[in-house]
Amino acid sequence: MKTNKPQTLTFTSLFCIKRLIISFFTVFFNELSIVNIFINIFANLIMAKFLIDHMPMEFKYLNYLEIINESFMLFFNYFLFLFSVWSGKIELRY
Description:
Layout: H1 6-28, H2 33-54, H3 60-77, H4 90-93
């Protein structure tokens, strides 16, 4: 990571805050699965936006790897709606 840029500290802080928020809502609000899914989606969206705007890593391919990682997590989080209470059909859920 580029240690001389302030975006590096912001990236690390955002990453830790994202993990804390996700774990907090998973532990204390586990009965609200739709809220947890939305929190995961918005956290990944914010991280992907930050990574695209600031590119905090030292090497270009590491930035692209992080962007791809967040994009895939964002894409796969949308499939969680199929397995939640949001989907009314039991056959579709299981």
